[in-house]
Amino acid sequence: MKLAGKIALITGANGAIGSMIARAYLAEGSTVILVGRSKEALEKIQIELSSYGNTVLYQANVSSPQDIQATFSSIQDRYGRLDILVTAAGVYGEIGTLEQCAPECWLEAIMVNLFGTMLCVRSALPLLRKSNGGKIITFAGGGDGSLPHFSSYASSKGAVLRFTESVAAELAGSTITINAISPGLVNSGFVQDLLKAGEERAGKQKYQEAQRQLAGEGDAVSPEKAAELAVFLASKESNGLTGKNISAVWDHYEDIPSHLAEIMKSDVYNWRRIKPKDRGYDW
Question: Does residue 77 sit in helix, strand or coil?
Fold first, then answer.
């Protein structure tokens, strides 16, 4: 098994992606710590996963410094180390054009998706340093271009990518790696949030896409794809890869070990500004 004896913590473990990653990690021999805001939802997931392996749950809001400090202090006392951190907790936040958004609601996605990721990574680092090759997996999203009506979500996820790259550079020379997953359009609780916002705030195209997803007619991506990639990034197969954003849908990540040296010397799997000369212009 690829993760035998490993201790993994997954935030957003009661979500479609988080729970699927938990199942995949258990199947690969890992002990899994489930973290989420709803104790009831976590207990339900824990029961569903009971046949796969050992789990322990912690109720915590990832955007609360107090909750995260208490969670990681308990993990320190209980296990003394951590091998894998997956920050799968996420929200759409405020949906609508910027003019429609209330500033305090717009901030929600920043607090959960970005600040929550930072809190967890920062708190996990001392425990990951006690592991023989700690792995951090963050979550990007929002596609590769503009995302009108979802500026809060897009801004938070874009920031997670630069955060991931920056922390990877800080950790250079250590045994800890950090990479981001772009999971694709997964039929999750986000779809319900979008439909609840309504067509006027979500935009006609996104609203209709959500309706088709709910009806089972859309191009939704299975959360299993993100889980499979999360296993790869948590295992020794991805050793040496850090600071990158990998798509669960489009990238042939199984081939990364064969091209690792080229990837790590380039901006492949990174977001970068495109300059005129990159498109053949001489101005």
Answer: helix
CA–CA gap between residue 90 and residue 67 (Å, rounded):
16
Dihedral of the alpha carbons of 226, 35, 69, 137, in degrees to the nearest 10 = -10
Is 211 within the bounds of a domain? yes
Handedness of CA 55, 56, 59, 64 (dihedral sign): negative
Residues 126 and 150 in one domain: yes
Domain holding 202, by residue range, is: 187-220
Neighbours of 74 (CB within 10 A): 14
How much is the pTM? 0.94
- Residue 167: which of 202, 126, 125 has the closest Cα? 125
pLDDT digit string, tens, across residues 222-237: 899 999 999 999 999 9
| Residue 278 belongs to some domain of the structure | no
Q: Residue 220 pLDDT more than 80?
A: no
Total number of domains constituting the chain: 2
